[in-house]
Fold these 2 entries.
Entry 1:
Amino acid sequence: MAFAIGVVCRCDIGLASPLELLMLRQIALTAIITVAACAPAVARTIVDAAGRAVNVPDVISRVMPAGPPASVLIYVLAPEKLVSWVHAPMAEDREFLLPMVRSLPTTDRLNDDSTEVDLGSLLVTRPDIIIDVGTVNEAYVASADRIQELTGIPYVLVDGRLPRTADSLRQVGDLLGVSNRAEELARYAEHTFETLSSDLASIAPAARPLVYYGRGHDGLRPALAVRSILKFSTFSAPGTWRGSGPVAW
């Protein structure tokens, strides 16, 4: 397994001398030990969306997102606990964010297929836990287990499906000690879903408009057969997915 540690470059091992290789091994070992030493003290055990028993601190003050959806969830629940962004906010978006998060560092996405873990970013951000919101399957479970074992930092998987929005808000709110805020948002989500479902049910299927779901900063990239969009159609029975770009409500 390869590691990206701070400012240490991943060099061509074949060109390194024995002394350089020894130094790289020592640096890597030091980084791993340092990260493990910074891991928070365990105080309770929770069960995440994958059914994993995860030991977490009783008080959580610093949370690192594994991907963009986690960044959003942490921000709306407890912005003061967010330690980094996976994608830095665009300049024109920052004015809509709380001042405390506008200049947070950017860290690599953890929930991809890479075999590398940026230990340097973990040393800088010093998270109490890592939260990953989205798909829950064997690949993401394996990635979470690997990173947690390597760093000693609790890694919590959260179900990111739309029908689970309210439940996920409450679960993460309880985890972060912000249950009141989570309940407020969960009830809003439930009310919104119920209202939309009721409104849709009153419209004949043939009379429902087609909705174009565009991706990217300019909205010009259609969401074709994207798993998250397919799941989105299951949020309301009246909605259907026709598979050619737009979502038919």
Entry 2:
Amino acid sequence: MNKLSQLKGHRILFIGIGFYDYDQSIIAELKKLNKEVSYFSTHTNIWNLLIFKRLHLNKISEKILKKNIDRQINRSSINNDIVFVIKGENFDDSHLIKLRSLNPNAIFILYLWDELHRLKNLNTLNYFDKIWSFDRVDCLKNKNLSFRPLFYREKQNKTTKNIDISFIGGLHSDRLEISREIKRQAKLNGKSYYIKLYTGIWLFIKMIITGQLRIKDLDIISILPISYNKVIDITRKSKVVLDIQHPSQYGLTMRSIEAIESGCILLTTNKDLVNYSDIPKESYIILDREHPVFPNIINESTFKLSDSYSLKNFLKEVIFINEN
């Protein structure tokens, strides 16, 4: 890793995932660290691609996606010092070979913001000089991965907490069933709640037609994405934040980190949180996803995460930035 230890470049090609405006926050922070940043995302919402995906015409949608990424690579800056990729979703070997040829002296760094087994093409890992993962268990299983949790974007000021429990996230796995039960118990105990499961219009229609969604579910369903500013505002006002991670995922979600930083008690199905020695047990409760129970919270959390969880320190670690 001598190449990494001598890293001093300032030109960074950042390839993000287009989730909320996290990519823009990362770019802004890199610029504060005096880096010259160019950017594109592997996530795309091209209308014809979305249609073909919904029609399950996978080969056609894959061709459209590949061409779109090819086009973005050809338009991207060249001869960068660092190529920093988050997830690398939708990349194939040809994309990374091309990127390597356009940036022959660059250090290629990958951050896996997902569990390893959900990566479509594991062979793409071979094109990176350094690979980080947010999933502690994946790192234990694979010696080529280095563990680094996610981050909070900014320190949160103390505010009045007038929502007893909240959850905002995409609908997958058993989130609907758990959210229904937490909502039922909240109403039974006279507790306030703000629960929104994002479906998008197509999944919403499908679940209505198939009877998976009930009329009484509609107050916890959103067909439109909720902005980050709204999410963090609800989080800051919540006494408890519910976190229902994907059953196969062990890494701490962004929701978990930002909830704890916002002074909330985290109610999470992620049992691996007990292995984070820098997060005290008083700041979270492990939820049994088979038998979810609304917690009896007496005191609000006063715990704040260390600066090591900040976006600035996240970037300094994963991209080997030394400010001295």
